[in-house]
Amino acid sequence: MDHPKDFPILMDNRKKFPECPESIPWAMLAPHERQALRNHDQTFKRLAERGGLSTCEAMAVLEDRRWQKMDVKESISKLLDLVKEWKEKNP
């Protein structure tokens, strides 16, 4: 494996959104790299080198859809739910 265990999540204002994860499992994103390429014209490796994805961007990739603006709180909540569900299935 040539990447870290976790993929970085960008957040401009962590003081305002302390519940925002700093990272999510890389393996959770891996099956969705094709969507990341569609949305960002970059691999996950390159995106991580550049600081990661925002919560809205991560949700779009995980849902295999084009990026669209989402409410930050909603995107954080959905992302946390998906991470929790993924970790339960992949201990």
Question: Which labels suit this protein?
Answer:
single chain; 91 residues; mainly alpha; 5 helices; 3 strands; 48% helix; 11% strand; globular
Description:
Helix 4 (55-62) packs across helix 5 (72-89). The protein is 48% helix and 11% strand. It has helices spanning 26-29, 33-40, 44-49, 55-62, 72-89, and strands at 6-10, 23-25, 53-54. With 91 residues, it is mainly alpha-helical. A three-stranded mixed beta sheet has the order 2-1-3. It starts with 5 loop residues before the first strand and ends with a helix. It is built from five helices and three strands. It has one domain (24-89). It is globular.
Layout: helices, strands, pairs:
Layout: E1 6-10, E2 23-25, H1 26-29, H2 33-40, H3 44-49, E3 53-54, H4 55-62, H5 72-89
Parallel strand pairs: 1-3
Antiparallel strand pairs: 1-2
Helix pairs in contact: 4-5
- β-sheet strand percentage: 5-15%
Category by helix and strand content: mainly alpha
Radius of gyration: 12 Å
Q: Give, in spatial order, the strands making up the sheet with the most strands.
A: 2-1-3
Distance between the termini: 18 Å
